[in-house]
Every structure is written in structure tokens, then in C-alpha cells.
Amino acid sequence: MANQGKWWQKAVFYQIYPRSFYDSTNTGIGDLRGIINKLDYLEELGIDGIWFSPFFPSPQEDCGYDITDFGSINPEYGTMKDFDELLKKSHKKGIKVILDIILNHTSAQHPWFLESKKNRTNEKKDWYVWKDGRGKDGKKPPNNWNAMIGGPAWEWCEERKQFYLHQFLTFQPDLNWRNPDVQIAMFNYIRFWLDKGVDGFRLDIIHTLFEDKHFKNNPLSWRFFPSHNSNEVLFHKPKYTQYLPETIEVCLKLRELVNSYSPDRLLVGEAAGNPQMIKQLYGRNNDGLHLSFNFKFAGQPFSATKFRRAIEETEEVLSEPYWPCYVFSNHDSNRLISRHKEDKKKAKLLAILLLTLRGTPFIYYGEEIGMQQVKVHKDKQLDPISKLKIWGIPLGSIYARDGCRTPMQWDDSPINAGFSKNPKIVPWLPIGQNENINVKNELSDEKSMLIFFKKLLKVRKQYEPLQIGQLNVSEDSNSDLLIYDRTFQEQHLTILLNFSSKIQSITATNMKSKQVFSTKLFEEQKEISEEITLEHFEGIIVEQMK
Length: 546
Ligand code: NOJ
Hints:
about 550 residues; Immunoglobulin-like; 16 helices; about 15% strand
């Protein structure tokens, strides 16, 4: 029987970075009540689910990805009552809510770590990955493991006279998943949020949960630069620190846990690597995570051939019953439109691609208005990665993530772009300087990116093949064009994307077809005769009629 589609297969998710969405309390920082105030906007936009970046208590050394309590709300953002209201109101609008859960590590200020680091005999002594050092004084790291962002994954702790492991930054110690008490504690937090009614989780760097129990050295790699095709970086192959079988086991257990809830809940993995690698998280029998972000796709240059290959690879690796998950931008990567020289036509074409593939798409807040990367002056950068030195070289500034995390641009107010209720409040990060790119302006402009997104989302909702249909990529007869079909039951749609700056003409194979959407004319629906003409960087969706 044809796949009728689960809610999370049909859904379009929208990522909210709570600190930057809307400040209802005039603190310069976004908050939960601010998001409640903007739920109508999200409903009208036409998204189906929200992924919230972490809003748990945190010293904010890594903007909330360093947590001190997994079971409550950072007072900066509001209260649990606010969250309950947000959840209830989202659900009332038919919007699902997924939270960001960080199972791999806590903040170094988490009470568990503060206890664990005191000595080698305390109650939490084995809650983190501790290891004696090497060398005469024991102050050489236990092995060659690198942190994901470079440098040793080990940090010396004077109190215990031991090293602790951190696969990310030094203030994010890795939990010891080999300790059953850790597993119980973290699973209980998951239950806590599921019992509240959340619809699932995005699982932060889930591929790094376990490390080799014998602490074997990782092999060397010839790769220096990070790549979306691999998890090797800085001459390091993380064979003993990523994708361990024990990690996959936990994915299966998590699935079992969410399966015990009704209605069904969703697990989305965040992991480095190509489709083959991330597939492991789905489980051999598709009984692990439901989805895992496909970052290889996101990293493609603007080329029909490159995208075709990335889609074909994904379709092959994650064929039914597996379900891909596509995303172009998030809080860790430069804004999509800026990666393409602020070209709105290209951004629109890519939006059609994102929203018409077989897989669950995620949109990053502001993507729908074409928000651009903001140049944040060095003195104002808050991302710890911007300050990172790798082998003494300040490489971090290349990867600084502040510019994609700036406040949502609601209107053209000069100080905070309508982000705070009070237009005089200076926000936590500077705003983008393009006063035309904001919700208020774009709502009144029929040709704007926002109206384009709204209409595209509507078309996706209207046509089931775009949500759950089978996908067929056409032969590569013209390297400037990417053409694929989506079919569900009797309905058949063709997506044609012109990646070139030249006009392209295609002879329609079907006598009767109707253009239902285009990057240029997102209003009209016109019958197509024999020839389809695509202007430069134009993308269209065509319905094949009987
Ligand atoms: C991935 C998150 O997306 C990123 O923002 C964070 O810094 C690291 N994981 C560590 O939690």
C-alpha cells in the first residue's frame, strides 16, 4: 500500500532560536512569551512544527547548548507556566513542538559536574568521562582524541588530578553514557518533557554519545578542512569517538521510549557525516531515530549537477521506508541567501527545492524573509567558537556563528528592527542593516520573499505528492537544469529548476499540464502548451493533467 504519511513526514518545521525571536519584556533578549505573541505569524506562514533551540538554564557560554538543568526554563526566557501556555497554544493551532535535547554533555557548571570534579570518591564520580593522564607527571592527555572543533578533547582538572573528556568545547564535559545512572537520569528528562506533551526532540551531536571503552587512539586522516561529506577534520578520523555501536543502541532505546507514547513523537538527529553515516542512527530496521539532518545536501554549491547527485545519493541510501531530512541553514551556518551573494532568485529556487523533495524540511527563522548574514564586529561577537584558537591559530573567527543568530527583523525600527516591544531597547546581538528585509515591509509587497514562502507552503499543503509522493530524478540531459517528479496515487507533479543565468526551454512531454507555482509568478496558474520556458534561476512546479 502506498505510504499515507506520518505527520512528521508531511510537516514543515521552523527552527526558532529563542534568544532572537521576539523580546516581549524589553530585556534585549527574546523570550517564550515573545514566541507566544508571534504564534499567529507562524500559523499564517503555514509551518507545521517548531524546533526550539535550548531554553533551559545555562550560563550561555555556548548560547544555551551548555545546560545546567534539563528540566526547567532559563528565567531569562520565562517560566514553566509560559512554556505550558506556549505548548498548549501551539497545539491549538495545529503546530507541533520539538525541543532540543543535549544528551552528550552538560555545562561545566551543572551541579552534576561540580560534584563529579571534586574528587574521585563522590556520588557523581563516574557521571563524566574521567581518565588518568600520561607521562611522568600524568599531565599529558590520555590519548590523541580531538574535540570536534579541534584541539584535544581532554581537559585537565586539578581537583581530581585527572582529565575529563569534552567532544565539543572545554566547558561542555561529556556525560559518561556507560554509567547506567546517567542513562536513567537523561531518559527521565526525556520522559518529563514527553509527559508534558512535546512532540519530539532534536538530538544535539547524537553521534558522539559513546567513545571506545579502551580509549584507543583515533587514526590519522588526510583531511584538514571540515566537509559535509565526512566527519574527518584536522587530520583526525574519529573512529573511536563517533557512531559507536553503543550510540546506535541508545537511538533504538530512545525510539522504544517515544514509541510508548501516543500520539507518536519524533526524534531528529544532528550528526556530522554523509548519508551513509547518518543512516546508522536510523537503525538497521528503521527502528532508531526517525530522521537525521542531511548536511551534505546543505553544503552543495549552486549547481544542478551537484544537487542532483546529492539527491540521488540520499534517495539511494535512505530509500523507503527511510525518510530523509533536509535543511539549508541553522544557527551554526551562514545564512543561506548570503552564501549565494544575497541573490533572492537563487534563494527562492533553493526554497522550492527544499520544500518539494521527499523528506522533512526545516526552515531557519528569518529564512522566509531572506534575512542576511549580519557582520558582527569582533568586539560584539559572543560565540565561543569565534575566539577559538586551533594550534595557536585564531581559526575560530572564520566559523563565528553570531551573524546568523541575530534578532528576527519584524519591522524597520532602526535600533532593534521591532525585535523588542520597546523600539529603544538595544538587542543582545546587532540587527541586520537592510531596512527592507523585515516582516512588516514584506507582508505588504506581493513580490517579497515572505509572500513567496507563504504561497509555496500553501502549494505544498495542497498537493499530497509534494509531501509524501515518490521522487524520481530525471536524466541529466542538461547540466543547468534539475528536474524531478513527485507522484502520489494518481497525482503527478514535476519540479523544474533552472540553476543557470540563461533562459532554458524544455519541450513538455505531456500534452496537458498546468503550472501551479513559479519563483517568478507565484500567483498564476497557467496551462502549459508544448514548451516550458524557464528564466534564469527560475524554478517552477507543474501538475501533469490526465
Ligand atoms: C551542535 C549545536 O548545533 C551547536 O550550536 C552547539 O554549539 C554544539 N552542538 C554543542 O552542543
